[in-house]
Amino acid sequence: MPVRVVRSPTPSFPEPSALYTACKMVRWLSAKLGPTVASRHVARNLLRLLTSCYVGPTRQQFTASSGDSPSLSAGNIYQKRPVLGDVASGPVLSCLLHLAHLYGEPVLTYQYLPYISYLVAPGSASGPSRLNSRKEAGLLAAVTLTQKIIVYLSDTTLMDILPRISHEVLLPVLSFLTSLVTGFPSGAQARTILCVKTISLIALICLRIGQEMVQQHLSEPVAAFFQVFSQLHELRQQDLKLDPTGRSEGQLPEVVFSDGQQRPVDPTLLDELEKVFTLQMAYTIYVPFSCLLGDIIWKIIPNHELVGELAGLYLESISPSSHSPASVEPTVPSMGPEWDPQGGRCPQDDGHSGTFGSVLVGNRIQIPADSQPESPGPLGPISGAGSGSEDNALKQELPRSAHGLSGNWLAYWQYEIGVSQQDAHFHFHQIRLQSFPGHSGAVKCVAPLSGEDFFLSGSKDRTVRLWPLYNYGDGTCETAPRLVYTQHRKSVFFVDQLEALQHVVSCDGAVHVWDPFTGKTLRAVELLDSRVPLTAVAVMPAPHTSITMASSDSTLRFVDCRKPGLQHEFRLGSGLNTGLVRSLAVSPSGRSIVAGFSSGFMVLLDTRTGLVLRGWPAHEGDILQIKAVEGSVLVSSSSDHSLTVWKELEQKPTHHYKSASDPIHTFDLYGSEVVTGTVSNKIGVCSLLEPPSQATTKLSSENFRGTLTSLALLPTKRHLLLGSDNGVIRLLA
Questions:
Q1: Mean pLDDT for each 10-residue chunk of the chain (733 residues)?
Q2: Which segments carry the region annotation Disordered (predicted)?
Q3: Pick from 649, 616, 622, 654: which is nearest to 635 by CA?
Q4: 230, 413, 446, 470, 616 from 475: Cα distances, Å
């Protein structure tokens, strides 16, 4: 009589508001941060978190819904029977796959697969070992993630990396799974789950690649998996017991098997192995693999007859009478592989399968309902009950994203994911990633926004442009600006973001404060006396909302963008012939500001009191740029070819660098390093802490054309924005 199978709904991970919000935030960050930062900081932590989802016996229990699932013989042969760890890992896998959707297949093959190999790699110690709970969970996480990866790989990529999957994933997993000396902390339960997941994974790969490729690439893993049944069968016949005589303490007995190999065996593990590799497990793997492999099962699996006999014994144990109207005996005849232990025949198309063989119709092995065993047994099916079509697909296409990695972006990303997170140095490889044409005049200044997803540029063409910084193309693509601000009447020499208010501040002799989202001017600050133009501008760090401006009469003025009029006004260099203020820098705390003059003189001012803390002749030439660093450190460059590091209140410089050929007219900071640029298109990196030493790189004409006019560094992404006199900005790494 046909058995009516009621499929329970797919077990779904509960999505309370906090979890749902966290997943959305991770996805948003993955796109916002770009491929290198997302892979280094988001994907790496998600991969570590995936292992945590399977730690402990509780997470290794089958879900309640899968307990009512159909029998072993029904349905898709590689369906996943979920455990509680699968439920917990659902959101993590979803976020990992979202990263792959964003940046393409290389994320799967160059980041996820090496991490899987790391998880399943055997320990360095030789001899008997016992897994710890973290390693045990890592094996389960690795097999689960591999199955997700296989589904999304193209046929070409799958065939390219199939030898790696076989030798770096399947064989190490099987060495733990079938080991006669390595126990699992959670015992038979964890080994059973790993066994079920491994069956599912191997079956999926077999369905993807077809019989011919299975014989060529997967013979060793499949044979190793089946071999454990022969080993246990021989151990049962030898009746191995824990006999300490003749062995030193801690030494395991050596057993010679029928293949001539002598292997150590831990007698205390035999009970655990017997609970896993049962008659039902033999039936579970024999039926689908005999149908999947067809004729080649005799070539790949030497002990197929023994496993077939065990499968027949399982059928006999659950239904001693007959299994079908034809009353087929449940023993395994030594006939062709078309035999089905349930009395049917394996569906045969033309002896081939695979997603690129294009002759496998569907992915199900259909067994008549009236020949199904009445009891599914304690192991249950390989699948998760009621798995959706998406979970059970043989192959899915990764959506093509505009941010997919290729060309220079791919090369740079591959390098970056291999760099240690503890590496605090800036490495410049001169890899061109993006171009930003649009300005008709020289680029005078560039400034990234705080999130590093946009940047601003000011030019001689009297415009300020807002550009997106998302990766696009292969390194040769050009990106258009999102917004162009055209309200300036002269060349723009300063632009930056007032972070506290999220406004843009730009200056052409008059300061404009405007909204970067709409381009609307919010405020314009211009001195009453047109003969006294503004020569330098700086914005105060958050939470301050002020702008500081220096005019040609050596006066420093503060404007609070929330209030009309001036906030403060201070005179600098009274009674001294210091020249014009060329550069301003505000300390990260906002408590002090330093002004650099055309005479090489520098003045340090307390922003809270207006008192001049210090004034000193810092350079012999015009000061070109000043930056303030945490710890009361100042960095200044001058037309006298020098770059000097100062402590605010110390008389002598901490470090002094001298450029051999050209003055350092632009620089930016990366941690304790300074990245410099000169008009001869040389990029240098020097340290704020170590003795004077500087590594310089000459920009090639292929990557950068024109003369370098401005430079800005993206500290999180470790990219450089380089402005030129021809109006084009390049993003290099």
A1: 38 63 93 94 96 92 61 43 89 96 96 96 61 93 96 94 95 93 92 93 91 89 92 79 50 74 83 92 88 85 91 84 38 34 40 43 40 37 40 80 93 91 88 96 96 96 96 92 96 96 95 96 86 92 95 92 89 79 95 95 92 92 94 94 91 88 93 94 89 82 95 95 97 96
A2: 322-353, 368-392
A3: 654
A4: 56, 12, 20, 12, 46
Does the bond joining 82 to the residue before it have cis omega, within 30 degrees of 0?
no
- CA atoms lying within 13 Å on the CB side of residue 684: 27
CA dist 89 and 53 (Å) reads 6
Structural domain spans, the chain: 16-64+75-240+254-316
What is the DSSP secondary structure assignment for residue 456, as one 8-state letter?
A: E
pLDDT digits (tens, 9 = 90+) for 508-564: 999 999 999 999 999 999 887 778 889 999 999 999 999 999 998 889 999 999 998
Write the pLDDT tens digit of every residue in 36-85. Answer: 999 999 999 999 999 999 999 999 988 876 544 434 333 344 455 788 99
Classify the C-alpha dihedral 440-445-446-450 as positive or negative.
negative
Beta bridge partners of 596: 583, 602
In a 10 Å sphere around its CB, with 0-12 CB exposed, 13-18 middle and 19+ buried, how is residue 565 labelled? exposed
Q: Give the ranges where 153-184 is alpha helix by DSSP (H).
A: 155-164, 171-177
How would DSSP label each residue in 48-71? HHHHHTT-SGGGGSBPGGGGG---
Whether the CA torsion 207, 210, 211, 215 is positive or negative: it is negative
pTM: 0.81
Residue 41 to residue 29: CA distance in whole angstroms: 10
Q: How far is CA 373 from CA 4, 98, 322, in A?
A: 12, 41, 10
Q: Token pair of 21, please? A: 């919000």
Quote the Cα angle for 188-382-118, to 5°: 65
Q: Rounded CA gap, 47 and 51, in Å?
A: 7
Instruction: Quote the tokens at residue 535.
Output: 């020569």
Residue type, 491: S
3-class DSSP string for 287-348: HHHHHHHHHHHHHHCCCHHHHHHHHHHHHHHHCCCCCCCCCCCCCCCCCCCCECCCCCECCC
Burial group, residue 171, by CB count within 10 angstroms (0-12, 13-18, 19+): middle
The answer to whether the beta carbons of residues 464 and 492 sit under 8 Å apart is yes
Query: At how many degrees (to 10) do helices 133-152 and 44-52 cross?
Result: 120
C-alpha distance from residue 563 to each of 175, 451, 468, 559 (Å) = 72, 27, 31, 8
Instruction: Describe the crossing of helices 155-164 and 188-209 by its angle, rounded to 10 degrees.
Output: 130
